Amino acid sequence: MSSRLTVGHVAARVLTFVILVVAAVAITAPFLWIFRGAFSGSDAELYRLPPTFHAENLTLDNFGKVTEQVPYFRFFLNSIIVSGTVTIAQLITCSTAAYAFARLRFRGKGVLFAVVIGSLMIPIQVTIVPLFLVMSKIGMTNSLWALIFPGIFSAFGIFLLRQHFMALPYELEEAAKIDGASRFHTFARIILPLSGPSIATLGILCFTYWWNDLLLPLVMISDTDKQTLPVGLVLLAGRFSTGSLGTIAAGIAMAIVPVLIVFIAAQRYIVQSIASSGLKL
Amino acid sequence: MSVKQAQARTRGDGVAALAFLTPSILTFLVFVLAPTIGVLILSFFDWNLLSDGTFAGLDNFQRLFTDERLLGVYGSTTYMALVILAVNVVLGLLLAVLLETRMPRWIRAFFRLSFLFPFVVSASAVALIWRFLLNKDLGLVNYLLGLTGLDRIDWLGSSTWAPISVIMVNSWKTIGFSILVYIAGLQSIPKQLREAAIVDGAGAWTRFWRITFPLLSPTIFFLVVINTINSFQIFAEPRVLTQGGPGDSSRTIVEYLYDRAFGDFDLGYASAIGITFALVLVVLTAIQFWFSRRWTHYQ
């Protein structure tokens, strides 16, 4: 290729790089700004333009103020409980259902699968009102269960895993069948271990969706103590008139850093799992 | 062995299927099917939170047609959703293709990481950050515009710019997912095809339109469907950035439904709005599948 390195090629490479750098700066700069704000001692400095950086004004006070103004760690714990439980439950229900649709023969399979796919078009936003009534009738509003149960069934998850299971070679299962293994044994010992990437993909997508959700906690939860992080941050910022910009920045930074750490640690895996699960319809 | 089990043996895997499907069927019945039927029933009632409802016939549906705000909200929702869809699908493809050009591994990893990161941060955190950055007098964005000699823009307070702010912030957050799915699609294109085209003397432009683009069409289709469904459901960004305003200029249909249901406690009317929203999604998805038959190439 280097023998064909013309002026045009060089210009194209430079342009490629410039576009990528501009995009990366546009995406990362706001995070850097908020991190600087989290450690900033005075709001005046935060609002000074152009943004300046004085090491002598750095402080950790903002983080303390966050936990004074709202039950921050409670929010955090609630978010982890909700997203973690939904993800585990969703992986169980989706993988078992996907296996039935991919490998088992039974009456009504086609109709049932059509119903699952059809429900993709009825998102939770449509059914939020009766969902709220159901939850309040069984006395679950204002508890974390109200945030967990509605997320467990996922038509998208069943569809994603079914596609993957169908692509696995039959021969392995045939061998297990001859050895007299039960369906469950085949599923747990042969299918699941071969499905790491697509299960990880579903897990990541599910966890981030429920970690980020604002609507369901706003509808279901009224006690501050039972709120999740997205609502918690809005509550913190709602006190902006009394609190300070630095405090809000610290609250946001504290919400971002754990995600950032997990994300950097798992990023190669995330990219690979989405790449190899081949998201397609 | 009971008669039923014997029948299952010969006919298929009925018993096993039932066992495998029970967890999802139960959650589906209670948390998807029951509320779906509930929406249909509620929409025929005049129902507020304090008292049980009274039958209202088609009143709620008649209101849909006389509610001028609803039409306006659908207008702003559609406008924002379509632009977000276009930005994510087109700009996402451009960035993914550029990312797949030759470059050192760690640089590629750095770009990929930065593009994807906002996707895992909560929408309310993202919207709060941008609420500062887009502030008219004190925000960094207007400061940068000032440096280039442009006028300040009232990003969150003008009915022209508020929906554009929501579009920018949502795309900023979600484009990384589209880029990642594109990268997966690009990597699944056999290298031999591109190499053969190079041997035949095809330039980069021709290779893209003749090989990459057609083979990527299932991925593009997937992203169009997913981005449509997601961008019509936006709630957090306008809620935190603009509260839907000024007027209804940046209000989405989910926000409007939420306010009718949990602001006015008008559960019957909110349910009727929910039905229209489901119909919109069904029609959009049907149109997309119809189009995909015509131009999607599967390998």
How many helices of chain A does DSSP assign? 14
Q: Provide the residue-averaged pLDDT of chain A.
A: 83
Stretches of chain A where pLDDT falls below 50 for ≥5 residues?
none
- What is the name of the CATH class of the largest domain in chain B? Mainly Alpha
Tell me, rounded to a whole number, the average pLDDT of chain B: 86
Low-confidence stretches of chain B: 6-10
How many structurally independent domains of chain B?
2
Total domain units of chain A: 2
Strand order of the largest sheet of chain B: 1-2
Beta-sheet strand percentage of chain B?
A: under 5%
Give the helix level of chain B as a range of percent: over 70%
List the quaternary state of the chains: heterodimer
Q: Looking at CATH, which topology of the largest domain in chain B would you report?
A: MetI-like fold
Molecular structure report:
The complex is a heterodimer of chains A (281) and B (299). Chain A has 281 residues and is mainly α. Chain A has two domains: 2-63, no CATH class; 70-243, MetI-like (MetI-like fold), CATH 1.10.3720. Chain A has 14 helices and no strands. Chain A has helices at 7-38, 43-46, 61-69, 72-103, 109-118, 124-137, 145-152, 155-167, 171-178, 183-191, 196-212, 215-220, 229-238, 245-277. Chain B has 299 residues and is mainly α. In chain B, strands 1-2 form a two-stranded antiparallel sheet. In chain B, helix 3 crosses helix 13 (267-295), helix 4 (68-99) runs antiparallel to helix 10 and helix 9 (191-199) packs antiparallel against helix 10 (204-232). The longest helix of chain B has 32 residues, at 68-99. Chain B starts with a helix and ends with a helix. The chains are: A mainly alpha (281), B mainly alpha (299). Chains A and B meet through helix 1, helix 4, helix 5, helix 6 and helix 7 of A and helix 2, helix 4, helix 5, helix 6 and helix 8 of B.
Question: Could you list some keywords that capture this structure?
Answer:
heterodimer; A: 281 residues; mainly alpha; 2 domains; 73% helix; globular; B: mainly alpha; two-stranded antiparallel ribbon; 13 helices; 1% strand
